Amino acid sequence: MDPKSWIQAQASLRSELIRFRREPDRTKLRSLVDHALDRYEAHYRAQTRFAKFGPVEAFNNPSATNLERAVYWLSGLRPNILIQLLYTESGHRFEAQLSDLLNGAHSGDIGDISPAQLEKIDDLQRRTIKDEVVIDEEMGRVKESVTDPFLPSDSDLDSRLEEIKRISEEADGLRMKTLRALLGILDPLQAVDLLIAIADLEIGVRGLGLELERNPIRLWH
């Protein structure tokens, strides 16, 4: 799915999540979260299929904005960013409802994460960072091989393209693995809040990237 179509899908998902956020039935909320995960799975499967035909294009999508290519990690959000975003959103929400929490009123939303959940999230972050480092090192080796002063043979070139495709698939797999684990730690309402925050981030990066390309000078004044 190209960036424009994906952002349109994210905007639609965001509206749906906001509409049902106050749903008291936690089972229905969890079903909505599972539905969102299915959409992410479909998106990454589509990227994998695209990478089979054009691994370089998949890695550096020409229809993405310059800002998206600068911010994203191997054609998508770095998995650890999802965890950092959770911490940021949770902190903002916690501060806003601190007095209620001190009085024993728990909202159950993203600002009301328990110590046990935080411990699991911290462990997930450590494991995710280690996996990111491995993928970064693999991509670094491929980039070094591309700068070889000797022209590669067709078989060498095919081998390097296959490596780029494989690494892109690993990155998408880690993104999905991290997101699924993170949403599994959270309660349904908290998971909905995080999905809304992720959609806001991606929509915001896309919008700012387009605006920068239309008005590269005016935005900085």
UniProtKB/TrEMBL annotation:
Q: Which PROSITE patterns match?
A: DOG1
Q: Which GO terms describe its molecular function?
A: sequence-specific DNA binding
Sequence ranges assigned to domain DOG1 in this UniProt record: 1-215
Q: List GO BP terms, alphabetically.
A: DNA-templated transcription
In terms of InterPro entries, this protein maps to: Seed_Dev/Stress_Resp_Reg (IPR051886), TGA_domain (IPR025422)
The identity of this protein, by name, is DOG1 domain-containing protein
